[in-house]
Amino acid sequence: MTTVSMGKRVIIRRCDSYDPGRIAAIVEEGMTELGARPEGRVVVKPNTVIAHPEIFPHAFTRSEFLDGLLSATRARAGRMEELVVAERCGITIPTRFAFSMAGYLPVLDRHRVEPRYMDESRSVLVELKRPGRLRDAIYVPEPMTRCEYLINAPKLKAHPWTTITASLKNYIGIQDDRHRLVDHNTWLEHKIVDLQEVVQSRFIAVDAIVAGQHMMLTPTPFHLGAIVMGDNCCAVDTVCAHMIHVDPREVHHLRMASERGLGPLDLADIEVAGDYPLDEVRERSEGFGVGPVRIDHDYAHTPGLRCTVGTFPEAHSRDYCWGGCPGSLQEAVHIHEEFTPACLSAMQRIHYVVGDVRQPLEIDDDEWVVFAGDCTRFDGEIDGERVRIVPTYRSPGRVSVHHTRSNDLLLKLAASFAECYTTGRRRFLHVTGCPVSVAVHVNTLSIIGGLSNPNLSPRLIAPYVGSYLAMHLAHLREHVGSR
After folding, report:
1. Which helix (H) or strand (E) holds 31?
2. pTM
3. Do the Cβ atoms of 40 and 79 come closer than 8 Å?
4. Are strands 220-230 and 201-213 parallel, antiparallel or unpaired?
5. Residue-wise over 346-385: b if at least 16 C-beta within 10 A, else e?
6. Whole-angstrom Cα distance, residue 430 to residue 354?
7. pLDDT tens, position by position, for the chain (483 residues)?
8. Measured between alpha carbons, how far is 228 from 309 in angstroms, rounded to an integer?
9. H-helix or E-strand containing 439?
10. CA-CA distances (angstroms) from residue 159 to 71, 218, 321, 465?
11. Among 482, 467, 438, 455, residue whose Cα is nearest residue 119
12. Is 383 left (phi over 0), alpha (psi -120 to 50) or beta?
């Protein structure tokens, strides 16, 4: 396990286009200035949470950026024993699919670099010791425990749960599906900080050429024209926050990481260098859309969806669950809008309820009610029938990281169909989970709302099925090989 580097120098360089040669030159110069010399077992970690050149073109670290970064890494390398690009994409999609859609595979072939799909790797337990930790141990895929030099290559985006996603938040992608959703609720930002203890970023290059606004899966593009580099996640993310008019102290995982001694949070403690002054970046980014926005505000006037939000069980976040079900709903709606642009007008009307709701619900005659999440409580009437939704939420101390459920997309799809089609004459259902994932929200909106399911889209299904089968074949090989 590597020690924490308290680097305080952050470089912002101009880069207005995705030119791999230009990116390579900028990154190599940044590595030289920071004294970065990749060596040993080197892992490059992009953000490939979801990728598709047409449907999700702005969600991921671009292939041209990865191309330039790998060129610079080769040029600056010391004695490298291994160079791999490792990631676990989001919402249960096979990482093979995301790498293919992101255009990574030709880049990796050209640079003679192996992909490491975290959803196909064996996970091992890593003990955590830093004061303030949420857990004493956490599971991560084996390639990350062998990493001696981590190059962190995030995409700068807004995020509906954590305000922004940059180098610290990029660590969520080092876990496989079985462990990724553990503590992905009001404890999400604590978990992000815990993951920093697994391995520290030795060099960071942020793709801020085209940044992402509002959402993390379906962001609205914003041409920022920047590459941000450093060797300390807190310092880099503090500068990134200022670049898009966010107070870094309002980014909870960033503040907590700094409080645990992982790096600075004050610009006065950071030397900002490069040819793109921070004030000029901020002038260019005026109006950048960040959020986050509560769902009862976001969908207050939409025709097909309205939301009732109650209270939540943890003392540090009584009024809202920023890391769980509400954000998953927002991402799911935005995904549906990519496939059905007028989906909120076209769908069956849904009244979405989350949290401990003590007041009666006003339900229209043409509305379905979806109670979401393990913490949701309700005791009242729907269509003259008494409805009791009993919470089953468990605090982190009662949730074992050793016993986790499968997060397989097809199993989730089947479970959603079973749950929705066994409601009988009732027009409500309780979707359980902590959190209810984006994938389950997508399925539920498809089935209850009468929308086409993006997972079954002809634009995706053929390459997706191939990647899904290859992923499970790799699982089988891993299982047989470990016996």
Report:
1. helix 20-34
2. 0.94
3. yes
4. antiparallel
5. ebbbbbbbbbbbeeebebeeebbbbbbbbbbbbeeebeee
6. 10
7. 333 444 589 999 999 999 999 999 999 999 999 999 999 999 999 999 999 999 999 999 999 999 999 999 999 999 999 999 999 999 889 999 999 999 999 999 999 999 999 999 999 999 999 999 999 999 999 999 999 999 999 999 999 999 999 999 999 999 988 899 999 999 999 999 999 999 999 999 999 999 999 999 999 999 999 999 999 999 999 999 999 999 999 999 999 999 999 999 999 999 999 999 999 999 999 999 998 889 999 999 999 999 999 999 999 999 999 999 999 999 999 999 999 999 999 999 999 999 999 999 999 999 999 999 999 999 999 988 999 999 999 999 999 999 888 778 788 888 888 888 777 778 999 999 999 999 999 999 999 999 999 988 888 888 888 998 998 888 788 766 665
8. 38
9. helix 438-449
10. 30, 10, 14, 29
11. 467
12. left
Phi–psi pair at 138, nearest 5 degrees: -150, 145
Phi, psi of 140 (to 5 degrees): -140, 155
In total, the chain counts a number of residues equal to: 483
